[in-house]
Specification:
The chain has 309 residues and is an alpha+beta fold. A six-stranded antiparallel beta sheet has the order 1-2-6-5-4-3. α4 crosses α16, α12 crosses α13 and α14 crosses α15. Keywords: DNA damage, DNA repair.
C-alpha cells in the first residue's frame, strides 16, 4: 500500500486481497451513460467527481495487471478520497458468509462470487440522484440529474476530462430558482424533498457512521425520504448489503418471477428474502445480475416531461 503526491496529483496504490473490477463495483454510482460526474476510458479507468467533508475532489481509478488499484486524486478533498479507497471498492463488505437458498441465486453467486457493495462514505452525492428517481422512469431522473449538475455543479478540479462536473452542493441546491427546477424536469414533490435534505445535509452524513437500519432511519426523518430512497442511499454510501429497495416499481416482480415464477408484492418479496438476512440486498443484486428477464405483458411506462407541464 503506497500513497504520495506527484505531478499527476495525489496518488495511492492498493492491492485488494480479493479480485476486484473497479468499474463493476462502482457501477451503481453511475446515473446513466451521460452522467456528468462520471467518465470512463475504454473500461480501463474510471473518473469520478464528488464532494467530500474537505471540499470537492476528482478521482481516477485504474487497475494494473497484478491487481493493484491506483487512485489519483485532485482538489481539496483528494486526501479524504484516497483514504477511503479500500471501502470504496468494497473492502468493508464481506460476501463470504452469503448462503444461497434458491438455484438461480446460487448459480449467480457461483459465477460472480466477488460481488461487493461499494461505500462512498458520503450521503449527499448519492442522495440527490436517488430522490430524483422517485416514482419516475430512469430516463426522466437521469435527464434531471444531468441538468442540475451541468447548470449548477462546478467543473471538476484537476486535469479532468472535458465535461466532468461536480454534483451541486447543498448551498448551490438551495439557491436554484423555482423555474430552474421546472426546466430540469423536477416536480414539486421531489424538489421539496431535495431542498429539505439540503437544509440538514451535514447531519445526514452521520448516517454513514450509524450504518444499517439506524442510518436508514436517520435519512427517513427527512420529509420525502422513504424506505426506498433510504435503501438506495444505504447501498451506495455505506455499502449496506441488507438494504432492500422496498417500493421499487420493478424489483418485487423481478424477484417474484425469478425465484417463484410469478409476480409478487413488496410484503411477499420480503418474505421470500427473509432467509438472506442480513444480506437481502445482495440476493437481489445477484438476481439482477443473473441475466434473468421477467415476462413482459404490456407497453413500458412512458417518461413524462415535467418541463412541458
Amino acid at each position: 500500500m503506497q500513497a504520495g503526491t506527484t505531478t499527476d496529483g495525489a496518488v495511492r496504490e492498493w492491492r485488494p486481497p480479493y479480485p476486484v473490477d473497479p468499474a463493476g463495483v462502482l457501477s451503481p454510482l453511475r446515473r446513466g451513460r451521460g452522467d456528468p460526474t462520471w467518465h470512463s476510458t475504454d473500461g480501463s479507468a474510471v473518473w469520478r467527481a464528488g464532494t467530500t467533508p474537505d471540499g470537492p475532489a476528482t478521482t481516477r481509478l485504474s487497475r494494473r495487471g497484478d491487481g493493484t488499484v491506483v487512485m489519483h486524486a485532485w482538489g481539496p478533498g483528494a486526501a479524504w478520497s484516497l483514504d477511503g479507497l479500500p471501502e470504496l471498492l468494497g473492502d468493508g463488505d464481506d460476501p463470504a458468509e452469503f448462503v444461497a437458498h434458491h438455484p438461480l441465486v446460487a448459480d449467480a453467486h457461483r459465477r460472480m462470487p466477488g460481488i461487493r457493495f461499494c461505500a462512498t462514505r458520503r450521503v449527499w452525492d448519492v442522495l440527490v440522484p436517488a430522490v430524483l428517481e422517485q416514482k419516475v422512469t430512469s430516463t426522466e431522473a437521469r435527464r434531471s440529474w444531468r441538468e442540475l449538475c451541468r447548470r449548477f455543479g462546478d467543473p471538476a478540479p484537476g486535469p479532468a476530462p472535458a465535461g466532468l462536473r461536480l454534483p451541486p452542493t447543498p448551498a448551490q441546491i438551495r439557491a436554484v430558482p423555482d423555474w430552474e427546477w421546472h426546466r430540469a424536469g423536477v416536480d414539486s414533490a421531489r424538489r421539496r424533498a431535495i431542498l429539505a435534505c439540503a437544509v440538514v445535509a451535514h447531519r445526514l452524513e452521520n448516517a454513514c457512521t450509524l450504518g444499517g437500519e439506524p442510518g436508514r432511519e436517520l435519512l427517513r426523518r427527512v420529509p420525502g425520504i422513504g424506505v426506498w430512497t433510504a435503501a438506495e442511499v444505504a447501498q451506495r454510501a455505506w455499502g449496506d448489503p441488507d438494504a432492500v429497495s422496498v417500493g421499487d416499481f420493478h424489483i418485487p416482480a423481478l424477484v417474484g418471477w425469478a425465484l417463484l415464477g410469478r409476480p409478487i408484492d413488496d410484503a411477499q418479496m420480503l418474505s421470500v428474502l427473509s432467509p438472506y438476512v442480513p444480506q437481502r440486498a445482495r440476493a437481489v443484486r445477484y438476481v439482477e445480475l443473473s441475466g434473468f428477464r421477467k415476462p413482459r405483458f404490456g407497453p413500458r411506462f412512458s417518461p413524462r416531461d415535467y418541463r412541458a407541464m
